[in-house]
Amino acid sequence: MTFLDDLKKGIDDLFFLAGKDAVYTPKNGFPGNIRVIFRQGATSHDGALCMEGKIRVRKSDIPDPELPGNIEIDGIPWTITGIIEGDGETLWELSVKRDIKPTFKR
């Protein structure tokens, strides 16, 4: 086994243990089940609560991320808003955003 093989095996183990199930839908394609490492944060913009986060995905699951892209994590839809970085061979780190706009009916 080469170092790269060992690295890919370790990444697969990490995604199995710490990953979340997700559904990625490319713009002109069909939904596919993948696993992601998900970190969520929250910020406020102009009175609307906006949820932002970062995901790490295997390049074997998403070889060429589309912007904006659609991904559902734990049943919640998110929009892929940016490519933060890739490591060349194995992973992408992507930014995601979910808008929460309150609606008030009287």
User: Structural class, from helix and strand content?
Assistant: alpha+beta
Number of domains: 1
Q: In total, how many beta strands? A: 6
Which blocks of ≥5 consecutive residues have pLDDT under 50? none
| Strand order in space, largest sheet | 1-2-3-6-5-4
Per CATH, what is the topology?
Thrombin, subunit H
CATH architecture: Beta Barrel
Rg on CA atoms, Å: 16 Å
> How are helices and strands ordered from N to C?
HEEEEEE
The quaternary organization reads as single chain
Give a structural overview.
The longest helix is centred in the first third of the chain and has 16 residues, at 3-18. The protein has a six-stranded antiparallel barrel. It is built from one helix and six strands. It is globular and about 50 Å long. The protein has a single domain (3-100), classed as Thrombin, subunit H. It is α+β, with helices and mostly antiparallel strands. Helix content is 15%, strand content 54%. The mean pLDDT is 84.
Considering the chains and any ligands shown, give keywords for the structure.
6-stranded antiparallel barrel, Thrombin, subunit H, alpha+beta, globular, 15% helix, 1 helix, 106 residues, 6 strands
Summarize the structure.
The chain has one domain (3-100): Thrombin, subunit H.
Q: What topology does this entry show?
A:
Blueprint: H1 3-18, E1 20-25, E2 32-45, E3 48-58, E4 69-73, E5 76-86, E6 91-100
Antiparallel strand pairs: 1-2, 1-4, 2-3, 3-6, 4-5, 5-6
